[in-house]
Amino acid sequence: MSEQSLSREHVIRTLPAVRWDEPLEECAAVTSLEQGNVLFFPHLTFHLKAEELALLDPALVDPKRKNISFDPLKNLLHGMARKESEPQVKALLERYYQHCVKLIRTLLPEYSHAVHSPMNTLRLHPIGAWRDSTSWRKDDSRLHVDAFPSRPIHGERILRIFTNINPNGESREWRVGEPFPVLVQRFMSQLKGYSALSSWLQQRLGMTKSYRTRYDHIMLRLHDAMKADIRYQEQSPQVNLTLPPGSSWVCFADQTPHAAMSGQYMLEQTFLLPLSGMKNPQNAPLSVLEKLFNRPLL
Ligand code: SIN
Ligand code: FE
Question: What is the pTM of this model?
Answer without folding.
Answer: 0.97
